[in-house]
UniProtKB/TrEMBL annotation:
It comes from Xylocopa violacea. InterPro entries: ChaC, GGCT-like, GGCT-like_sf. It comes from the Eukaryota. This is glutathione-specific gamma-glutamylcyclotransferase. Belongs to the gamma-glutamylcyclotransferase family. ChaC subfamily. SUPFAM superfamilies: Gamma-glutamyl cyclotransferase-like. PANTHER family: CATION TRANSPORT PROTEIN CHAC-RELATED (PTHR12192), GLUTATHIONE-SPECIFIC GAMMA-GLUTAMYLCYCLOTRANSFERASE 1 (PTHR12192:SF26). The lineage of its organism: Eukaryota, Metazoa, Ecdysozoa, Arthropoda, Hexapoda. It holds the Pfam family ChaC.
Amino acid sequence: MEARNNNENALWVFGYGSLCWYPGFEYRRSAVGHIRGFSRRFWQGNTTHRGTTEKPGRVATLVEEKEGVVHGRAFQVQDTTALPYLNNRECTLGGYITTITTFYSREGNRNFPVVVYIATNKNEHWLGEAPLHNIATQIFECSGPSGHNVEYLLRLAEFMHRYLPEVHDEHLFTLELLVRSRIKEENMCLTTLMGDRDFNVYLEDIEIDVRDEDNNVPANNAGINLRENSFQFILQTSDETLRCLKR
């Protein structure tokens, strides 16, 4: 299966979940933008990365919706190792299938075919629709070999806030608020939940280090979600309140 940009004769893959902040494969460049005809939902179960067989986590998938728009990140694949890696990560382990759709760049000056990985209700990991409070609770309670399910959700939401601040994803951001509220209520250590790891985001050959950027953002930019020490700032909670629970 190939999706090619006629001008660049290249294969592009669209990410709308953890690929946005951790692709895990080599690529030539990436760009933010959107696809149409889908909506992002946390309806797919996960037992290999963000959950276990006994307690599956919840990760993002796409559901068809005529007027839907999903914002994310497109990657121009660099070599032949990316697709086998993605097929194992998304299809073999995750239960996703592939389809092709059109990507529209944020600037509105480019559109081209992209490969998209989606999950359907026909796969064994499918959890389906549920009240948002229930989904948030499941995310809060689950973790797997790749880390806590909370990290998956909050890093995705933070990517959207930071690089697509004009976009409002009601499903994603409502889950973010519910999970952050639960963290505050339970007096959990956010650093522990997030894994205390650094991730670099490359957009159009420009490297942006999220942590370094956070430390240099003026306080008056908080309203557009470019926040100093952002994970704690959103909760409006002191460092003492976010102390780690003793285990």
